[in-house]
Amino acid sequence: MRAATMPSIMTTAFYLLPGARLPQGCAREVLASLTDADRTRLTALGTGREPPGIQRLSEPLHEYSPHRAWLWKVLTHRTGAPVIAPYAWMAEHGPRLDQEFWSIDFWTKDPSGRLARFEFADDALPRAACAAAPVLAESGMRLMISGKSFYTATREGLDYSARPFEDLCGMEETHIAHLPHLADGADKERVNELLHRIEGALREALPAETQDIQGLWLSGGGRSAPVFPPSTFRSVLTNDRTALAWAEDAGIPKAYLGTLGKKTKWPEAPEGDRILVIDDLYDAWMRHDWNAWIKRMPGLLDKLEHWVGQEKPARLTENVIVAFGHGTSATLVPEKRGALGFLKRKNVVSPENWLLDSEPKASGMNGEDAA
Question: What's the average model confidence in pLDDT over 91-103?
Answer without folding.
Answer: 91
